[in-house]
Backbone:
């Protein structure tokens, strides 16, 4: 088991914790900047182009996975599935951002959900995705569960809240670029306890019958990084 953990958490020669935290900070700043420019009436493809321009203007033109902004019904889709084209953000709607900028040698990765207008159910879904992310982090800190156990717990908690947890987005490694040459498995499959500064925790909630969902992801870190 120890050998498995070591293999899953190896890093490359450029890895530093300061570098990873810099990538994280730039990623969260970019998410906020992109979200501030999204407004009702935009077509999703135009929002993606805008997001790419924001990243370029911030010096973050390199990404290790596609830049995504997803509107309305497209918020239910797994990331590897293409969006339905031509979706327009409505006056009362939900959208999420998922970006993965490379900051020098290090991989950033982050996502968050936002709402426009007066959709109380949309707002609750967005809040629950972020709250569940932090609840999973808390139980990881407290009980040092395996990746598998963390996602099993998250699935049960999502169900209690009235949502489905999408296991197609089961978390993944992050490192100096490219992490996929080191370890490409999902956090939800990890049979050991994940370490801080090595993993992205992903929470993707979907309404069980309606066409909307919410997404939140960030690096798996202790509480002191969220003060």
Residues:
């Amino acid at each position: 088991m120890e050998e498995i953990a070591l293999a899953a958490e190896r890093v490359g020669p450029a890895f530093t914790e300061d570098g990873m935290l810099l990538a994280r900070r730039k990623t969260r700043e970019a998410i906020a900047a992109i979200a501030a420019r999204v407004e009702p009436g935009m077509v999703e493809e135009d929002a993606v182009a805008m997001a790419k321009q924001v990243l370029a203007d911030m010096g973050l033109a390199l990404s290790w996975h596609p830049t995504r902004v997803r509107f309305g019904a497209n918020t239910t889709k797994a990331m590897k599935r293409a969006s339905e084209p031509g979706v327009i953000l409505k006056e009362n709607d939900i959208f999420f951002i998922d970006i993965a900028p490379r900051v020098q040698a290090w991989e950033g990765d982050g996502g968050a959900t936002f709402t426009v207008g007066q959709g109380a159910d949309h707002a609750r879904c967005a809040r629950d995705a972020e709250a569940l992310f932090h609840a999973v982090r808390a139980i990881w800190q407290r009980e040092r569960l395996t990746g598998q156990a963390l996602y099993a717990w998250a699935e049960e908690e999502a169900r209690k809240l009235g949502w489905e947890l999408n296991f197609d987005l089961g978390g993944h490694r992050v490192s100096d670029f490219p992490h996929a040459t080191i370890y490409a498995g999902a956090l939800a499959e990890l049979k050991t306890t994940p370490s801080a500064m090595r993993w992205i925790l992903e929470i993707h909630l979907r309404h069980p019958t309606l066409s909307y969902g919410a997404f939140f992801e960030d690096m798996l870190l202790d509480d002191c990084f969220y003060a």
Notes: The chain is about 35% helix and 20% strand. Helices lie at 2-8, 17-35, 44-57, 120-143, 147-161.
